[in-house]
Amino acid sequence: MARLYAGIDGGQSSTTALIADEGGRVIGRGGGGPCNHVGTNEGRARFFAAVGGSLDEACKMASLDSKAVAFAAACLGFSGGAEDKEAYARELIRSSKYKITHDAEIALSGATAGEPGIIIIAGTGSMAFGRNARGEHARAGGWGYIFGDEGGGFDLTRRALRAALQAEEGWGAPTMLRDLLLNATGAADADDLMHRFYKPEYTRARIASFAPLVTQAAAAGDRVAIEILKRAGAKLAGLVEGVYKHLFPAGENVPVAYIGGAFRSAPLLADFAELVRVHIGSQIAAPRLSPAAGALLEALRLDGNQNELSGHA
Q1: Domains in the chain and their CATH numbers?
Q2: What whole-number distance in Å separates Cα of residue 169 and Cα of residue 294?
Q3: Is 75 within 8 Å of 106 (Cβ atoms)?
Q4: Which of 42, 56, 132, 156 sits a CA distance of 20 to 30 A from 66?
């Protein structure tokens, strides 16, 4: 019987499932909604719908019966960690071997195609994760929006709102961020916007979606916005440097990949790249493969299969 492999990337905004055959050829792909919170009955149902639905879709594309298929190995990487999702994942997926981990590990595996290196993630939140040739790993950041997530989308919007509030109250530098935020949200003033952001309808992801306004203001020469982006780039570079110091000897050139919406800001990315080059002597690069493909690679390796992925990985 043919050996099959499953890789799943379960995130805050979406879920992706990939299936590969024994040769590493991707034969199925499926997508679903978010699956990062499972603490309530509603969250559990959302998890089963997202993961189960994405896997059903991938099985359909691969001409497999999702109710009967059994995998040689499956790897699932989840935003927010794996501890509260492992039992559900095993219930959903039949497999001889499992690896259930966090999203940063599969993002790194995809970014470097399984090789040692460091991945920096800056979406709604932020964290860095690395692995060396000995299989040792380390992380930095990922503390959540209250205590950390520097350089992520939520943090950028938070800093923009703070600047707008300070300008409005007369104890901060003038900035066009205030008008940009008010126009984008329809709020009457910065104080009104602050109170709106505390309401449940303004999720962390929704607040983070206003982060591009900082880049817009910086492009127009707004000094406050320029400084916010510089600080964000420096914080993200600091996370990378922290991981590097734990795993690699000084002077070793290590692949550093980046992923996440915050890096759509060209000035932030440029500042980040320059600081990584100066501090650890490494060049940054976009990921070679997706996090879902990274999960699929981990599934193959779990089974002792060293084939590379081919097809639409």
Answers
A1: 5-113+289-302 (3.30.420.40), 153-285 (3.30.420.40)
A2: 48
A3: yes
A4: 42
Predicted confidence (pLDDT) per residue in 168-207, tens digit: 999 999 999 999 999 999 999 999 999 999 999 998 889 9
Query: Average pLDDT of 250-275?
Result: 95
Q: Report pLDDT for 59.
A: 93
Question: Residues 71, 62: contact at Cβ < 8 Å?
Answer: no
CA 208 to chain centre: 13
Contact (Cβ atoms closer than 8 angstroms) between residue 34 and residue 11:
yes
- 8 A C-beta contact, residue 119 and residue 244: no
Residue located via tokens 């959540």 = 144
Nearest to 254 by CA among 267, 243, 268: 243
- In this structure, how many other beta carbons lie within 10 angstroms of the beta carbon of residue 169? 10
Per-position DSSP letters for 180-229, written without gaps between them: HHHHHH--SSHHHHHHHHTSTTS-HHHHHTTTHHHHHHHHTT-HHHHHHH
Q: At which residue do the structure tokens 């066009």 appear?
A: 176
d(CA 97, CA 285): 32
Residue 14 CA to residue 51 CA, distance in Å, equals 10
Give the orientation angle of helix 266-280 with respect to helix 212-219, to 10 degrees: 90
